[in-house]
Amino acid sequence: STALVEGKLSKNLKKILKKMVAKDAHEQLAVADAKLGGVIKDKLNLSCIHSPMVTELMRGIRSQIEGLITGLPSREMAAMCLGLAHSLSRYKLKFSPDKVDTMIIQAISLLDDLDKELNNYIMRCREWYGWHFPELGKIITDNLTYCKCVRKVGDRTNFASSDVSDILPEEIEEDVKAAAEISMGTEVSEEDINNIIHLCDQVIEISEYRTQLYDYLKNRMMAIAPNLTVMVGELVGARLIAHAGSLLNLAKHPASTVQLLGAEKALFRALKTKRDTPKFGLIYHASLVGQTNTKNKGKISRMLAAKTALTIRYDALGEDTSAEMGAENRLKVETRLRLLEERGIRRISGTGKALARADKYQNKSEVKIFDPSGDSTIPAVSKKRKIQEVEEQDTEVAVKAKKFKAEMKEETTVEDGEPVKKKKKKKDKEKQAEEEE
To answer: Where is the region Disordered (predicted)?
Structure first.
């Protein structure tokens, strides 16, 4: 039926035409598809006709097919026609039940909800049982192992007689038993222990269901978008599809939009405040971006988004289900990542071009270093030193003044022969003034 839809000559039709139609017959074969008639004419050398009259004839045959084909009940005939119509329509629309991305959207949403509920239950269980045996939470860090251990043992007094070797290693088992003997926890009733055990059962069941759901999501992603899964992983690919609404809607987005999917709030806030826009959204959680250093995360996320956009379009619109294209593009991104990292290492270690630049000829000239001490003529001395110098200068001035007075007295005595008193000097001055007058 699919060959007839595409206008190809199938093997069964070829055999029937060879048996039923005589080679020497000069009759024309009525066909509903002109393309199929051309193929029959080329391969079997039969003259075919396609016209509005033939179309009306085919419609009459379809309406009277129950009377023409005997031996089949009408209910089976209707079911057969309906199944054939559905399969042909599905083929025309390129619709496959394996390509339904609604399952991925529901699965990833349920997985996120399970993670939140599981985290809430585990925190409640640890806090609840921590009143009875607080040391157990520090010894056992794995949440699922903690719940299994609590469910199997119950009261902390049962740890000494219980065998938990199938859950815990020998070293940790010994530490737990030793801590149970000297525990500082309070005593709880048997009813409280039973409620805690029921909560542990819920945690274990949800954990097992989450593992099963993750495997289902992984298989479904490999069936619907194998190249996208190879590029960014199952979880990131599923979140991209869920955020866009469908795989076809995601294929319509450009690479820049794929890069920023999930960071719309930050993008519009940056545009409003005129700041730098974000470099990545959901694609930040891809393994290739995670293993890159902080400096190169923007470059790798941009290249990864460009290659991811190509793989999304190939998965959404292509008929091939292989993941070769995704593997090739991932290899290109990994090569670019190694190149960027090696470039950074070269700059740090001084190898390659940087080392060649360092070995260039440089003229050796004597470099004179400027001495700032010659700028000021005042010696830099502490304040205490300056105060001492000022005091010494004052004493020197006083001594010089005394010496000068003593010398003047000696001169006056040498000239007059006798020491002259102050009153006599005044009288002499008065006499000289009278004589001048």
So the answer is: 406-437
Give the C-alpha separation, 336 to 251, whole Å: 24
**Tokens 């006499």 map to which residue?**
431
Residues ≥6 apart with Cβ < 8 Å to 193:
132, 154, 155
Q: Which has the closest alpha carbon to 321: 223, 219, 221?
A: 223
Q: What pTM does this model have?
A: 0.58
Centroid of chain to Cα 266: 15
Which two three-digit tokens encode residue 220?
């479904």
Burial zone of 214 (CB within 10 Å; 0-12 exposed, 13-18 middle, 19+ buried) = middle
- DSSP for residue 291: T
Length of the chain: 437
pLDDT of residue 17: 77
Phi, psi of 181 (to 5 degrees): -75, -30
Residue with the two structure tokens 């529901």: 106
Q: Which domains does the chain have, with CATH numbers?
A: 2-96 (no CATH), 103-216 (1.10.287.4070), 247-352 (1.10.246.90)
CA neighbours closer than 13 Å in the CB half-sphere of residue 50: 10
CA distance 142 to 150: 12
With beta carbons less than 8 A apart as the criterion, state whether 315 and 227 touch. yes
Which is it for the CA torsion 334, 336, 337, 343, positive or negative? positive
Q: What is the pLDDT of residues 95-154, one digit of tens each?
A: 555 567 888 999 999 999 999 999 999 999 999 999 999 998 899 989 999 999 999 988
